[in-house]
Amino acid sequence: PGLHIFSIALALEVSVGKTNTVTALNGSNVLLPCVFTTCIGFQDLVFTWYFNSTEMIYHGKIKSKASEPFLVGRNPRVEFVGSTTGKDNNISIVLNEVDFSDAGKYTCHVKNPKEKNAQHNASIFLTVVHKMVETDNTVTLIIVGVVGGLIGLLILFMLECLVSSSGNDNTENGLPASKAEQKAAPKA
């Protein structure tokens, strides 16, 4: 009859990278990244990619760290490009010949039976565009150049003032001249 406290630590994590958005050109192929980590390893791990949370577009299974995933089911335009036998447990896919109807949310879902069927997922949002727009940074570069130049001139002006004030002749203030200008009296 003692008090028992159990803590549950989720060792399974799933990630789609540093950004959860990707933009693709209409008619191109796009990589949808996904990696997973697990502290205690995996066996018979199942991963599934969903489009807009409901449509299954890729379903795979991985027996162990020593084996590559095998296909359970997929959309014909989806291709598995990951690998789980190397350092990263990469379960990324490529969506071929994207069109505007492919824009939306893609979710990478992982279930690990070795962790008492722990489940985790991560989502990435795909935007499909007619043409890629190049960003013009000319104005930004001009502003940075002007500000940098002004800062440089200010520093130069301050240094000039500092140097010229350190050699001032203080005789007008009733003080002897600076030591640099004082000369020793000639000995006779």
UniProtKB/TrEMBL annotation:
Segments forming domain Ig-like: 1-125
InterPro entries: Ig-like_dom, Ig-like_dom_sf, Ig-like_fold, Ig_sub, Ig_V-set, Myelin_P0-rel
Coiled coil: none
One Gene Ontology term, aspect cellular component: voltage-gated sodium channel complex
UniProt subcellular location: Membrane
Keyword Lipid metabolism appears in the UniProt entry: no
SMART domains: IG (SM00409)
Alphabetized Pfam families for the sequence: V-set
Membrane topology: Single-pass type I membrane protein
One Gene Ontology MF term: transmembrane transporter binding
UniProt region (Disordered), positions on chain: 168-188
Signal peptide: none
Listed GO biological process terms: cardiac muscle cell action potential involved in contraction; regulation of ventricular cardiac muscle cell membrane repolarization
Keywords, ordered alphabetically: Disulfide bond, Glycoprotein, Immunoglobulin domain, Membrane, Signal, Transmembrane, Transmembrane helix
Main location: membrane
Membrane spanning residue stretches: 30-51, 139-159
Name listed for the protein in its UniProt record: SCN4B protein
Species whose genome carries this gene: Dromaius novaehollandiae
